[in-house]
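From the methods appendix. Each design record in this collection lists the tokenized structure first, followed by the designed amino acid sequence. Records were kept in a plain field format so they could be parsed without special tools. The example shown here is representative of the layout used throughout.

RECORD:
FOLD TOKENS (507 positions):
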């Protein structure tokens, strides 16, 4: 779940892209990058770090042009090395830069195809570099001569959508030609379009979340449809086309649970409103499951669980208090690479106010329990602060399957609920009671806000992979690669493993 942004303006766009990335920082804290286009030249700067640390004035000065793209990264494929920071660039055809949010499930197979059939060299283990090369190859094929019209671009995206599997929302810029944005045919990752009417004509901003449009003074126009591509040409004229054979909307439920900012609206549903609803449904379950437990106070684990906790307290008519204070200078711990960094950060990030806990039965509400790093520490901290009983409630169901579409939960053994009953997880996190949201209630909480949303990508909870290419073998291989990082590149992967992968992705 990286943050992506693309803009076509009448003014220099460097500051606008920087500010938009700051608004998307919660989607990726590992690396950031901007590429701008000035006539037929690109300028690019990218590095590991937060947006505010990556760009210095001298870098900003070099980012010239009135259109460009930006990215903040949370790695899902490859590594967190600087070479894999985005945007990526290829020089042929025309010169293209690309920024991608999501994860391709067949990137290794595509990488091999690119090399063997298309003679394209891919220099990293990033699936996003593969996506760019597929796009470049298909644009090359769809074009004759030096003219590149919207029809050829949409044809290229149509073929790309047939070749590429997984979750992807992308913005790409073709040097001197225009800005392209596209969303995968299952509509897993979000992408929306905004407009700013000026005296010189309209300006367009495309971003992962609506918060980036509003924050930059653009008016939200609409979400980009699954399988749709939008192209804004050099004259700033917008073209759009459906580029998928069988498009269907299956937004990722984890965007609503945790990833997105609450003030964003994704696919017609306010993230904040869906989190309130999650709190309501969770309250009903607590009422059913713990009818005899006298709870004194409801507390959120800041930040993401706050709306659910507020509404839950209201529904149960229990006092809502903030017992944990978050250090606002520590980033989001779930999206940090490495378990050691995550563990250390929980206590640095959250501190308890003892008077709020002393001699109380507290109900702690979190948006989700993934590895259990946060909940384990938090329950202990609540007890140390004087709570007599600690009840833990999760606004999302148990996470038991890996996510392969852009959230870094790749191996089952990292997930605390994998292979454990609710009682066993409760024991692991040392809580007195543990209540998880039901999956149907989670989906309903989102559908209550936008009834047009009838299907979701909820694989980490229900094991249903909407792209249809993720088999048990595939997941086994992913785990093997995760546990044996040296063997994770196709060149180093044992032959048998590679065959397994190709069979899994073809099947
Ligand atoms: O079970 P775990 O693996 O610990 O993951 C779940 C936790 O991680 C997130 O917190 P984070 O600090 O990332 O973000 P937040 O401030 O937005 O809640 C989330 O809100 C949970 O508290
Ligand atoms: N979280 C994401 O969207 C990651 C994008 C891409 N797969 C990467 O690892 O850079």
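DESIGN:
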């Amino acid at each position: 779940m990286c943050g992506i942004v693309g803009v076509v303006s009448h003014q220099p766009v460097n500051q606008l892209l920087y500010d938009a990335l700051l608004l998307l920082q919660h989607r990726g804290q590992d690396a950031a990058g901007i590429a701008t286009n000035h006539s037929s030249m690109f300028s690019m700067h990218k590095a590991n770090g937060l947006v505010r640390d990556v760009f210095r004035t001298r870098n900003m000065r070099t980012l010239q042009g009135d259109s460009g793209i930006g990215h903040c990264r949370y790695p899902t494929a490859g590594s967190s090395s600087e070479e894999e920071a985005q945007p990526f660039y290829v020089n042929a055809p025309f010169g293209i830069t690309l920024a991608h949010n999501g994860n391709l499930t067949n990137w290794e197979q595509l990488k091999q195809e690119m090399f063997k059939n298309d003679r394209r060299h891919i220099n990293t283990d990033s699936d996003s570099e593969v996506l760019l090369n597929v796009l470049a190859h298909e644009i090359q094929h769809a074009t004759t001569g030096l003219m590149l019209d919207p029809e050829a671009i949409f044809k290229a995206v149509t073929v790309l959508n047939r070749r590429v599997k997984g979750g992807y929302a992308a913005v790409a810029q073709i040097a001197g030609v225009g800005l392209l944005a596209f969303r995968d045919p299952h509509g897993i990752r979000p992408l929306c379009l905004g407009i700013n009417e000026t005296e010189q004509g309209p300006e367009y901003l495309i971003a992962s979340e609506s918060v980036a449009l509003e924050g930059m003074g653009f008016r939200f126009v609409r979400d980009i449809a699954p399988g749709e591509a939008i192209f804004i040409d050099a004259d700033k004229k917008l073209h759009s086309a459906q580029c998928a054979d069988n498009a269907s909307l299956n937004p990722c439920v984890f965007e609503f649970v945790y990833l997105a900012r609450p003030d964003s609206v994704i696919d017609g549903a306010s993230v904040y409103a869906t989190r309130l609803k999650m709190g309501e449904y969770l309250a009903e379950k607590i009422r059913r499951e713990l009818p005899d437990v006298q709870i004194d106070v409801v507390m959120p684990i800041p930040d993401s669980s706050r709306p659910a906790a507020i509404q839950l307290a209201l529904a149960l008519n229990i006092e809502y208090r903030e017992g944990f204070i978050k250090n606002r200078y520590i980033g989001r711990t779930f999206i940090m690479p490495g378990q050691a960094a995550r563990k250390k950060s929980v206590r640095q990030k959250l501190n308890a106010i003892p008077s709020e806990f002393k001699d109380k039965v507290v109900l702690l509400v979190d948006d989700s329990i993934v590895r259990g790093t946060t909940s384990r520490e938090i329950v202990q901290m609540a007890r140390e602060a004087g709570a007599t009983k600690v009840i833990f409630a999760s606004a999302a169901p148990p996470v038991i399957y890996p996510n392969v579409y852009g959230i870094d939960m790749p191996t089952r053994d990292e997930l605390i609920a994998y292979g454990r009953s609710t009682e066993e997880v409760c024991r692991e996190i040392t809580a007195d009671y543990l209540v998880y949201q039901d999956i149907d209630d989670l989906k309903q909480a989102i559908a209550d806000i936008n009834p047009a949303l009838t299907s979701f990508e909820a694989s980490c909870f229900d094991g249903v992979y909407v792209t249809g290419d993720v088999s048990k073998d595939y997941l086994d291989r992913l785990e093997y690669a995760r546990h044996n990082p040296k063997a994770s590149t196709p060149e180093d992967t044992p032959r048998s493993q590679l065959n397994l992968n190709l069979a899994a992705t073809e099947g």
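APPENDIX NOTE: Residues 289 and 376 are 22 Å apart (CA to CA).
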